[in-house]
Amino acid sequence: MARMHTRRKGSSRSRPPFRSTPPEWCDTNKEELGKHVLRLYGNGISPTMIGLTLRDQYGVPSVKPILGTKLTSYLRENAEVPEIPEDLANLMRKAIGMRKHLASNKKDLHNRRWLNLTENKIRRLAKYYRSTGRLPSTWQYKPQTAEMLIT
Predict the structure, then answer these.
(1) Where is the composition biased (Low complexity) (predicted)?
(2) Which CATH architecture has domain 86-150?
(3) What DSSP designation does 10 have?
């Protein structure tokens, strides 16, 4: 599939094989893994970094076969998660940084274009999250209030 904002084609990459059970060499059980996840999330680590930490330090290849649910849905059931999903918040942080840059560099046309593309990504992702119920149906991205939502 082609990239959305460039003329290049997409690159192939490795994908993990489909498994419904954890591998034999993984000796972590459900209760132990759940405690690790909640402890790491309580320390202020994002779900993405929790997955990387579990992979690198605890030898857990994937959380889903062990817990039975995805990491974010497990956190939603057992902890207080922020209203705005992590990927949307990261895009909003990126747009805020671009707007700050444009305030002092008004003639940076390349940055202006990438700001436009990033904000379009934010709107598309917000539309998806509104349709799936992760965001309220009245939620709208506004650059003026984005910094208050993120901090």
Answers:
(1) 13-23
(2) Orthogonal Bundle (1.10)
(3) P
